[in-house]
Write a structure and sequence with these properties.
Distance between the termini: 82 Å
Number of strands: 12
Shape: globular
Order of helices and strands: HHEEEHEEHEHHEHEHEEHEHEH
Largest sheet: 6 strands, parallel
Structural class: alpha/beta
Helix content: 25-40%
Length: 318
């Protein structure tokens, strides 16, 4: 009897000890057992499919519709991206473990595209696309074009040159050189008029004559139009649209026609460039001297440089 009372007392003391220390009862050894029975705490690892589904919530990005902004007017759309779980699984199943580098994505197109918008000027590309574009308006400055083209070639950058129709007819060799270097060709009207003060008939004539000159000399039908001096009105935009051209303005102006110091101009301009920026310049000594620095400073911001058309393209680049 005494042995039973002693055993019971010991058992109660053990129970009180475990309660006081907040030790789970599962770990209490049975009395008289030779071995302690401990229940291990385990967690089932997530399956690869579950990990991919979780990754999708992190990496998926919705598409961005093209819009007419109150300030920036027409802004192109940009594709979203979605993790392709099945394709990603196929890439990772051999190792059987999640690897971010092997994720496969598919682009998701926006519902509203640039061509769906009413006629409106365009000042910038989509701000989510890490790309910018050079707009080089040409109606003079022949002596600086070879140097500019050389720098663009060396830095592997394509730009959009907006050529005046009258200039193309006077300088066909230079115009062809620009095209042969792989740059995009746009219209800059025929005789550099103030289109905001030009009647509708005159606007249409300026644009049509330029298109005829570009087709005759370069076999080009431009889809982009840059108004001389940035002077335009809604009539200009609508007439350009009727001729299947977008009206292009700019986000950042080099003001290179004021003959600034080339390096100072390049650094100030590059500091203002963001995703979607369109950078206005001309064939000037300042641009020729500062272009390389400008390009390299922009690339250091992890922004690609390409043509206006590629900037407007909805395809994701990363």
């Amino acid at each position: 009897m005494k042995k039973q009372i002693t055993a019971l007392s010991i058992f109660i003391l053990i129970i009180l000890f475990f309660v006081q220390k907040e030790i789970p009862f599962e770990s209490i050894p049975y009395i008289h057992d030779d071995k302690q029975v401990v229940t291990p705490v385990t967690s089932k690892p997530s399956s690869l499919f579950e990990q991919l589904e979780e990754a999708a919530t992190t990496y998926n990005e919705p598409p961005v519709d093209a819009v007419v902004d109150k300030v920036w007017k027409a802004i192109p759309g940009y594709n979203g991206k979605m993790v392709d779980i099945k394709a990603s699984y196929e890439e990772m199943k051999k190792e059987g473990s999640f690897d971010e580098r092997k994720l496969v994505f598919e682009d998701i197109e926006p519902e509203v595209h640039l061509e769906d918008l009413p006629p409106a000027p365009i000042y910038k590309g989509n701000p989510q696309k890490p790309m910018a574009a050079f707009l080089i308006n040409v109606s003079w400055g022949e002596e600086h074009l070879p140097s500019i083209l050389k720098t663009l070639r060396e830095e592997k950058v394509k730009a959009t040159f907006f050529l005046e129709g009258r200039w193309v007819q006077k300088n066909p060799k230079l115009a062809k050189m620009i095209k042969e270097e792989g740059h995009e060709i746009g219209s800059h009207a025929y005789s550099h008029p103030d289109l905001n003060a030009t009647p509708r008939a005159g606007i249409k004539e300026e644009l049509q004559k330029t298109n005829e000159a570009l087709e005759a000399v370069l076999s080009e039908k431009p889809t982009l139009f840059a108004p001389p001096s940035g002077s335009f009105n809604q009539d200009v935009v609508e007439i350009a649209s009727d001729l299947n051209m977008y009206t292009i303005l700019w986000t950042v102006d080099t003001i290179d026609w004021k003959k600034p110091d080339p390096i100072d101009m390049a650094e100030k301009t590059a500091s203002k460039v963001e995703n979607g920026s369109m950078i206005l310049m001309h064939p000037t000594a300042s641009t020729a001297g500062g272009l390389k620095v400008m390009i390299r400073n922009i690339k250091e911001k992890d922004i690609e440089l390409d043509t206006v058309t590629n900037l407007f393209d909805e395809t994701r680049i990363r």
